[in-house]
Predict the structure.
Amino acid sequence: MAVMKTIEVLSESSQSFEDAIENAVTRTGKTVKNIRSAYVNEMSTSIKGTKIDKFRVNVKITFEVGE
């Protein structure tokens, strides 16, 4: 039986929500192994003037805990 753990990660990108999600998974993967899923819990933006400055995501990342 596998044991799973979920952590919450905040990430941002100046490009897109998709890029912010990819950044969250990639950066987390540098220190956390056996990532199994990522659930986007919340999305928001920051605005400068009339343009979107940053795309921000709150991602729940689930990984398998080793023996």
Remarks:
- Helices lie at 17-29.
- The first strand starts at residue 4 and ends at 13.
- Residues 17-29 form the longest helix (13 residues).
- The mean pLDDT is 95.
